[in-house]
């Protein structure tokens, strides 16, 4: 991993966490909650940036893998504390928690807009079929393809565009192909057999070939309203895709290679960094939307868990006792730790077997 990749990775986490926690803080302050600290990172305080007129201390902490907004009175029996979280209405508490995931999704949308206005929108006019991403556990990964490789020919015949390459690959399911590629200015040849998958084309189910590659596309400037529309479609599409992926995982229909820990995130960042800052920003936008959706999962200690608790309180018309809240949080923490250990272990396995995104 290069120094540039580490800079990108830290930058992505810092921006995304800041946006998420800002959502919590902004709504909390709208409801007159006392925000004692707005922290980027976890662990010991590295820097006290400033203290606002309302008393909020803005800090940077040692490890840039998270962040938090500190509001007094988070336990059910602390509503007597002035300006505390528990002293506010259920409506206010619900919105303050919901604001974090919503801010993450909106920040992803904003990044898509900024990318569209500065670098342009994806276009099919790109004459160079360059690999943007190699999917894990795919024929392309098994053949050794990497982000940044340029496809020159298939079976000795020159290929002029990613669209042309896609047509040839789709038409050759389970048939061996010989790809001529270029990496760092040097040509090389690999043998690859597209995997047959089910797809729907023009409303008709078909079997097509796939090698597990996302192709790089050229960008061009478009009108402002088209950029806004495209950013909206990207955000909605990402949201639907993530929700569907979570559904498949829950019902045992997903692929273990679709989930990942910080190791996978670092691997994707490292691969994307080779394509430039625009692609890194595009990844950050998608990651921000994913962060927002994942935080809505109804697991205690995540935002979605608190929203679930508030919903139960609304139905019962009374708050959970401090003891019940503590038990629920312990259960949530155990679930999160189990997920973390499982996903981290899968990433170690993928790292050892060479199945991380490259």
Fold and architecture overview:
Helix content is 48%, strand content 22%. The chain is of the alpha+beta class and 358 residues long. It has a 4-stranded antiparallel beta sheet with strand order 6-5-7-8. Strands 1-2 form a two-stranded antiparallel ribbon. Helix 1 packs across helix 2 and helix 1 crosses helix 7. It is elongated and about 75 Å long.
Summary?
This protein is of the alpha+beta class and 358 residues long.
Features:
Pdz3 Domain; 4-stranded antiparallel β-sheet; two-stranded antiparallel ribbon
Q: Return Rg in Å.
A: 23 Å
Number of strand segments: 12
Biggest sheet overview? 4 strands, antiparallel
How much helical structure, as a percent, in the residues?
Answer: 40-55%
The total of helices stands at 9
Largest sheet, spatial ordering of strands: 6-5-7-8
- Which blocks of ≥5 consecutive residues have pLDDT under 50? none
Oligomer: single chain
Class from secondary-structure proportions: alpha+beta
Instruction: Give the CA-CA distance, first to last residue.
Output: 11 Å
The proportion of strand residues reads: 15-25%
Residue-averaged pLDDT:
87
Strand/helix succession? HEEHEEHEEHEEEEEEHHHHH
Morphology call: elongated
Helix-strand layout with pairing:
Elements (H helix, E strand, L loop, with lengths): L2 H28 L6 E15 L5 E14 L19 H29 L2 E3 L7 E4 L4 H4 L7 E5 L2 E2 L3 H9 L6 E7 L2 E7 L2 E7 L2 E7 L2 E3 L2 E3 L3 H27 L11 H12 L3 H18 L8 H14 L5 H32 L5
Antiparallel strand pairs: 1-2, 3-12, 4-11, 5-6, 5-7, 7-8, 9-10
Helix pairs in contact: 1-2, 1-6, 1-7, 2-5, 2-7, 2-8, 5-7, 6-7
